[in-house]
UniProtKB/TrEMBL annotation:
Residues 22-126 form the Impact N-terminal domain. GO terms for cellular component: cytoplasm. The lineage of its organism: Bacteria, Pseudomonadati, Bacteroidota, Flavobacteriia, Flavobacteriales. This is YigZ family protein. It comes from the Bacteria. It comes from Wocania arenilitoris. Belongs to the IMPACT family. One of its GO terms (biological process) is regulation of translational initiation. InterPro entries: Impact (IPR023582), Impact_N (IPR001498), Impact_N_sf (IPR036956), Ribosomal_Su5_D2-typ_SF (IPR020568).
């Protein structure tokens, strides 16, 4: 069986989704991310926006083949917030995503079971409202060549319908292409057999 070379993520930030339970309000937000720095940025933004809230709990997952994730209960009882949020990320099979649930305490304690349910439901509703799309896992290659070999390189790129992400076309040229993982070896072999053309993975 071949390893899948696609993954699911969300296209854009999701507008706030509200879930209420015994006067407590839970606002769910989802963001597409690719680094931990973005997590800090979005939490800071939400703390400014919801400065009167009690908790800003979250879970995120980054990566396609090697996955990094983290959960944070932000003062709620252990595993009653971040873990149920992360459970929904797993359930929807999405990655490169951050979900933050902001809680305003309504004066009535929900108990651990109630909290787990509230954070799980808010994360679920947030994901249901998100635009989830499937993307391919790609490898990037740098192709270096002299200007005289330009036509050869461009012909292959066109024939194979390859995606150019960056190019520097002078006397010595460099093109960076993004290739779907399952096609990558084949493309690498085509270019590496050509005289005076160098290809390497980046």
């Amino acid at each position: 069986m071949t390893k899948k070379d696609t993954y699911k993520t969300i296209e854009t930030n999701t507008e706030a989704i509200l879930f209420k339970d015994k006067n407590s309000k839970f606002f769910g937000y989802a963001y597409p991310i690719t680094s931990e720095d973005e997590v800090k940025y979005y939490i800071k933004k939400l703390k400014e926006r919801h400065h009167a809230a009690r908790h800003w709990c979250y879970a995120y997952q980054i990566g396609t083949e090697t996955v990094r994730y983290r959960t944070n209960d932000d003062g709620e009882p252990n595993n009653s917030a971040g873990t149920p949020i992360y459970g929904q990320i797993q359930s929807f099979d999405v990655t490169n995503i951050l979900i933050i649930v902001v809680r305003y305490f309504g004066g009535i304690k929900l108990g651990v079971g109630g909290l787990i349910n509230a954070y799980k439901t808010t994360a679920q509703l947030t994901l249901e409202a998100s635009n989830i799309l499937e993307k391919t896992i790609n490898l990037d290659y740098s192709i270096s060549f002299d200007y005289k070999n330009m036509n050869t390189v461009m012909r292959i790129i066109k024939e194979k319908n390859l995606n150019i992400t960056k190019q520097k076309l002078e006397m010595d040229c460099q093109i960076i292409i993004s290739v779907r993982k399952k096609e990558a070896l084949k493309i690498f072999e085509i270019f590496s057999t050509l005289f005076e053309i160098e290809i390497k993975q980046i």
